[in-house]
Amino acid sequence: KPVESCLSHNGKYLWVTYYRRSYDLNAQCPSALAIIDTEKDEIVRVMPTGPLPKMIACSPDNKFIAVTHWGDNTVGIIDISSKDPFKFNYIKHCVVDKQLEMNFSNAEKVDRDADCGFCLRGTTFSPDGKFLYVGKMGGGGGMAIFDTRDFNSLGNVTGMQSNLRHLVISGENLFLSANKPGYVQRVSWRELTKFRIENPGASLRYEKWDDVYVGTGVRTITVSPDGNYVFAAVNTLSKVVAVNTKTMKVVAEIPADSYPVGMDVSPDGKLLIVTAQGKSNGGGNSVMIFRINRQ
Description:
- There is one protein chain.
- The chain is mostly beta strands.
- It has a single domain (2-257), classed as Methylamine Dehydrogenase, Chain H (7 Propeller), CATH 2.130.10.10.
- The chain is built from 1 helix and 24 strands.
């Protein structure tokens, strides 16, 4: 089950996480990721990961890949400074608060989609590459911040909506989607990080969030290249919503095929590509292409 992907080395390598191994009843064993050479269109290397890898992100300076493990509250950091994929190597195993023990009995199946500790999901680097942000979709919510000089934790930040699903940074703003509450929120990533650094404590509450309700089940979000709009895939309500990033107001919405989940904007900002996962007897299983028209 491939989950998420990201590009590195100016688009030469595509990194794809595999959620779990078919024989691993309770997803306790290491999973894997594939590194695809986009020029050759072939897998050139497979690397191990922790249990249930979901989100994967490349630092803007092209030095690191962060692999976020849904299954045990950890993030694997890979040094990708070499141009040779066979020289990529893990350098740090970051723990968010406490690593979840892999001691589930194989005599009974456990729902690891839900029994996942903090259920780490959204992952992004700051534009200057100095910080890594990881969202907690479960376990009370919040966000962990790491200093990329040594990938030590700066601690957690709360105060945003719960059930964080996706994080993305555009310019000075960090945007997040809160799945169950149905909100998209905005915050200054610089101010948030400064607040976290300057105040002691394992977890701090930050209050300066701007938000807009887009609908329950908001999943992937993506920002237009000019930074003026954030688009949201609203899974439960089967629609796509556009939000003005300056006013944080909904400016457009359009019906989508059943259960939209993933999306991205073309580099020229003219097309929005959306995937619909579908569910049993519920449609979906499609790719939609929307043209973005501005008035």
